[in-house]
Specification:
There is one protein chain. With about 70 residues, the protein is mainly α. It has one domain. The longest helix is centred in the last third of the chain and has 14 residues. The radius of gyration is 12 Å and the shape is globular. It starts with a helix and ends with a helix.
Length: about 70
């Protein structure tokens, strides 16, 4: 079951998945910055659509999706 769900999610853009996670958790860039010890501008820069998301953030997205299903 996980493999099927995960494979479907792979077709969805990482940035869309990130926005869905942020929205689902009610987080802002400032909230995330506080959690990871960065500035809100750093979070905004790191998560720009023209850049690949960091591996740690991809892990957070997958964990969020698995725990909310």
């Amino acid at each position: 079951m996980f493999t099927f769900t995960f494979n479907i999610k792979l077709y969805m853009n990482w940035h869309k998945r990130y926005k869905a996670m942020k929205s689902g958790l009610g987080l802002t860039n400032s909230d995330i910055a506080d959690i990871i010890g960065n500035t809100p501008d750093s979070v905004k820069s790191t998560t720009q659509p023209n850049k690949d998301l960091p591996r740690w953030l991809k892990l957070a997205i997958v964990v969020y999706e698995r725990l909310t299903k």
